[in-house]
Amino acid sequence: MPIDRRETLLDRARDMNALIVEDDYDYEMSFQNSAHPALKSLDRDGRVIYVGSFSKSLFPGLRLGYLVGSE
Q: Which segments constitute the Aminotransferase class I/classII large domain (predicted)?
């Protein structure tokens, strides 16, 4: 998603007092284009919950993931 759309999404979430769940399961596997920054990195209001997984990048049978949120 382009940066301007990401910023619009964050503005909209702030206006609606909503949370956004960003599932970035394939970030480690995008080799063709330079990846856009995570939506969480643009979040200044604590509205994004970032979800990731190590299953694709480390070991498919591992089934290990993580969450990054705000306090």
A: 7-70
